[in-house]
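Quick start: read one record
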Amino acid sequence: MAYAIIKTGGKQYRVQPGQYFDVEKLDVPVGEKTTFSEVLFHSDGDKVTQGAPFISGATVVAEILDQHKDDKVIAFKYKRRKGYHRTVGHRRRLTRVKVESISL
């Protein structure tokens, strides 16, 4: 099975055609297609291509499925016997994408 490793939003993802995954928010409307051009690695069975740092001309085409927020993360600070406590919540904005194709 062919797969690639791409870089987006400061993170790296291993992707295959037909797979869907969440990335940091992309400013692309739902239903549109986007292209990831920062492909670090590609494997198709025995054939392996590695970039330095990126593979020139390689692209991954993906469809935008959803724009949503991640689960809430609570940061709670507390100091005993001092009456000090602080609560801060945070929710990341994510984009769910489905990989259509990988091309070199």
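Residues 3-67+95-103 form one domain.
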